[in-house]
Every structure is written in C-alpha cells, then in structure tokens.
UniProtKB/TrEMBL annotation:
Highest taxon listed in the record's lineage: Bacteria
Pfam family, one: Mannitol_dh_C
GO terms assigned for molecular function: oxidoreductase activity
EC number from the UniProt entry: 1.1.1.-
Keyword Lyase: no
Keyword Oxidoreductase carried by entry: yes
Name of the protein described by the UniProt record: Mannitol dehydrogenase family protein
Amino acid sequence: MTQSLSLSTLGRLPPAVRPHYEPVTLRAGIVHIGAGAFHRAHQAVYTEEALATEYGDWGIIGASLRQQGLSDTLRAQDSLYSVLTRSEAGSGLRVIACVRDVIHTPSDPRRLPALIASAQIKLVSLTVTEKGYGFDPATRSLDFARPDIARDLRTPHVPASTIGTLFAGLHARRIAHGRPLTVLCCDNLQHNGRLLRHLVLAYAEQVDGTTARWIEAQVAFPDTMVDRIVPATTPATLDEVEERLGLRDNAAVWGEPFMQWVIEDAFASERPYWEAGGAQFVPDVKPYEDMKLRLLNSSNSLLAYLGYLAGCDYVYEAIALPGYAQLARRFMQEEAAPTLSMPPGQDLAAYQERLIERFGNTALPHRCHQIAMDGSQKLPPRFLAIVRDNLAAGRPVRLSALAVAAWMRYVGGKDENGKPIAVQDPLANQLQAAAQGEAAGIVDRLLDMRAIFGDELPRCERFRSELIAALERLQQIGSRAAVMEYAAG
Ligand code: CS2
C-alpha cells in the first residue's frame, strides 16, 4: 500500500513540490473558521507564498464547525495536504504546510474561543458559506430566531454558531489582554467585512455591552473579494494526486490556475505578506466584489440552474450547449455590467471573456448541483441586487428573471425528465412546497418569501411578469429551447 503524506514522508518529495521551510517550527498566527476545500485552495495558498517569501509566525489553525472527518483526515497526515491545479493547458501540484492543525469545534466548544483569545493570534479568517453566518438574506440582519443563535444567547460560553463562537473568542480576548485583532470574512457576500462586523455587534449587544464597545474600537473587519473555482474533491482527484505524489493524500484539494484576492487595507495589526501570492490591498473593495459577485457568481448560478435542468452534470457541459455561452455573455453585458462601477485598471470586457473560458475548463469539472445549492442565500447578492438597480434605472431585467425562474423550477424538486432533485437549501422544504403548480402561483408564493425577496421587489409588477413569462417558457418548452430563445433576443 502507498504510504501517506506526513511530516516523515515529506522529505521524499521533489523540492518544487514541498515547502521551503520547516513546518514543525512554524508558529500559528491565524485561526481559520471553516477549513474546507476553498480555504485550503485559496487563503492557505497565499499564506504559503507569504511564508516562502517572508517567513513569519503565520501558521494557520483551522476549525471545522461540522465535519469531524476533516479534522481526523488532516491530523492523520500532520495537516499537510496538496493542491492540484488543473486546466486544459496542463496541471500542477504542490504541498501546503502552513495549516498546522484542524480542530473539530463541536467536540470541544471551548477550544476555538480560547484560540481566538490567544495573544499569538493576530488574524481570524472565515469561509463558512453564505448560510453559515445566520443572517436574514433580504435584510442582512442577524436572525435571532435561528435555533443555534437563540441557543448560544442562552449559553454564550459554550457556543455552536459561527457568530456565537466568534463573540465568545473576542470576549475572552478582551478579558485576557485586549490586544487588537483582524477578522477577515472570505465568503461571497456583499460588503462581507462590514456585514460580519454588524452581525457580531448585534449579537454582542445582547450579551455584553463592554465587549461590544471593545470590538468597535479594537477589532478590524476588512472587506475582501475572493476568487478561485474549487470544486469538491472527488475520489479521482485523490487518485491523481497519489499517482503524482507517490504518497496517499486524503485531504487533497483541486482548483483552477486562476486566483484573485482583493482585501481592504484596514488591518488592526500585522498581517502576512500575502502580496507574494498576488493579493491586492485596496482602500475600497466594493467595485471588485460587485464585479465578482455580479459577473462571475451570478452567471455561474445562471449556468448551473439552466444547465442542471437541461440534464448537465457540469458547468463546462452547460456552457457548451447551443445558446448557453451567448446567454451568459448577454446577461453579463446587458444586465450585470451596467450596474457596476469599474474597478481601477480592470478591463470588464476581458474579465467577462475570461469567465466564459474559466467556466468551460473541461479539466476541472464543477458540478451544477454544487453551485445550485443554497439558492435562497445566493440569489439576493447574485441576482436581486442587479434586478433592483436595473428596475430603479428603467433597464431590462429579462435575463435575470430567466435565471431566477430557473431556480424556481429547480427548487420544485423535479428535473425536466421528472427525476427528483436533491435540493439542498436551509429553506428547502418551504421552497419545494411553494414551487408546485402553475407558473403564476409559483412566482407569487416564492416572491412572498420575504427573507429572500425583501418587501419591495415582490410588489414590482414588471419583475413579477418577467418571472411568470420565463417560468412559463421553461415549463412549456424546456430549458434548452428557452435558453436559445432568450439568447437570441
Ligand atoms: C460558485 C462559487 O458554488 C458557487 O456558488 O459560484 O463557489 C464560485 O466557484 C467561486 O466563488 C469562484 O471564486
């Protein structure tokens, strides 16, 4: 049997693949909450580059809020893992060593707050997905009715929710020594830093006003834009890594060559030299995050819903169907781009063409189903923000309506051949119940879900009638034919 990747086998790997520092002596300076594939293929890679260029105490302690398996797998290989980069032009592999441990927080709820409080930790970063923060997507305020948040408010010293855990750590930090901290939200949310600050403060006000004031003064929450396509690891990924490495790595991740990280230059204290990996530090992230959410993530979701309905497993298959790339281009040019302000030095047209190429990467199959999940959380930043801006400016919303209608059809739970869809969404049951029957009824019942659509949008007749028209077309002629129609004009 092949031996596993670990500190004792690391030395066998060619120098180009392994780290150029001694992992055992690396001290931790970062705690990362949500140590899944995206974090390990993105922020950890930037940190690895920073360490290679300018060594420092920037090891990462990861925390997994759900999967015990992740912590066990990583610990079995001394938290080392590989990143496989794949594109049609070729592939690359390297071992990342800056993650020094991954803890499973439900097994020991006090451990993560204690780490956040530790004086040697200067940064806490997070990738817990949109739904992991516990806010109402339409109002962006903390949902105090959510069972995990309500429970944490009753027992704040043994938290389970992300916000409760972060607060417990910050509170302990204030009491222990009060050193400043930077909290870096790395999820695909508008103004993610500001949003997280607002959620933490809302929670803190309920528990301890003194800590709330301290957070306001001593904790920085920079906005960030993160980008890299990182599909879920498959057994084939692990086999390919094993073949190339000559060692078994059960924690390997894979991603495309492209990576981008734009960070608001507003830290509470020191940080790693992430510029080494190409990170950009800017005064205002908003133009970049709008560009990414409204061009990349929205067209990714558009292709995922319409592709899944058409029977495609992967985005690269969807974008190869007649009309799909054309529809994505038109959606970006006609509805998304007009709502954007230009990030400095960015060529928006080239960015859009690059996206079409990235989605078409056959060497990195990205499941439509993975992107389609949690639509109730993803729709507001990806489409509804665009729709609101366009309605206010008197511009078209027809293609956005087709994407939202495709989501409506998808959450109904049956594809176009009558095959069940395993809809994954915190609101899955309500969505599925609402999405049955005639188009007008489905649209009205779903629009009525204020946590997604807010108060104003459901009252807008223009949007409602575009949704009904699009959903009727999807029901009558199916997604492939509807895409051809909408792509043509
Ligand atoms: C995707 C994103 O799963 C999804 O919803 O749209 O994960 C996307 O691949 C990344 O944001 C790319 O940076």
